[in-house]
Structures are given as C-alpha cells and as structure tokens.
Design goal:
The chain has eight helices and three strands. It is mainly alpha-helical. The protein has three domains: 68 residues, no CATH class; 41 residues; 65 residues, no CATH class. The radius of gyration is 42 Å and the shape is rod-shaped.
Amino acid sequence: MNPETCILRSAESFYKRGKATLVIAKFIPGINTMAAPLAGSMKMRFGQFLRLDFAGALLYSVTYLAVGYLSRDFLAATLNGFHAAGRAMEVVVFVALVIYATYRITQFVRYKKYRIMPRIQVQELAARLASDQAGRVLIVDVRSHGYYDIGSERIKGSIRIEPNNLDEEIKNLPKDRDIYLYCT
C-alpha cells in the first residue's frame, strides 16, 4: 500500500470517530502511529490526550493479559505438544545415527579384507614379465562396461574377464600361475 493512502485513511477514521478513537488506537496499526499527531491537529488539550491515551494503553494491556490468562491452558498444552515432539525427534535422530553408524561399521568390517589386497608397482611387474618367470604370470583386465570397450588397448598378453560374471570366470583361471588384476 501507498504510505500516503494509509495516513489519509487513518486521519479520516480518526476525524470521523473523534477523540474516543485514542482508546482503541493501540489495536489498529495505522491509527496507532498517527494518533498523537492527529490529536494535536484536532487541538486536543494535553491533559485530555494523556487520559484517553492512558485509557487506551490500559485497555490494550488488560486485553492481552486477559487473552493470555484465558488461553493459558491451551498454550500450556501446545507447549507440551512441542516438547513431546521435540523429544520424539531426538529419539528418531539418535536411532538414525545409531543405524547409520552400525551400517558404516559393518561396511568397514565387510570390506576390510579388500583394503589389504597386495599391490605391485608397474616397474616390478614389467621386470617379472621380462624375466624368466614370465610364463608364470597371468595379467587379467577386469574393467567394467563403463570403462572398457572392445576396441580399447590392453596390456600385452592380458586376458579380459567380465566383472559381472567374475564368480563363473574365475573358475576357469589356471591355479598354477601368479594372477595380476588391473582395472581403471
């Protein structure tokens, strides 16, 4: 809204209802702001202004105190509901954290054996391939579909195993050779 329109409406309402408007002015946002200047423009005496303004302030305070007193049981019930919801939410968050921590620990324990997989440096493998032990070495390409296409280059002498069929294809690997796997 335009501030000038708000001021003009407040002044119009104040002039129409007269001096008694000061008693209810605290309840009406636009009139409350303009009450003192409008009372002055009506040439209201200072003592009369103080009495009416004090009566309005008293009515405003008593009204809100009465509303608070009358709705105290409702407010108490509402606050108790919020406290109960807060406690329930604490339990839900705690349980979720415990479940997540348990999940992460089981994942860590389950895959711990894969963290200690022996690894070999490229130079070391190249030296083995160049030595007289090259016949005992088998290199296996286990790249997944997203990283392997049929025309891509592989390490010389390596074989391709499909990672999705690893359980079946691993049975066909020779047991008497050292097997080195590589992926992406």
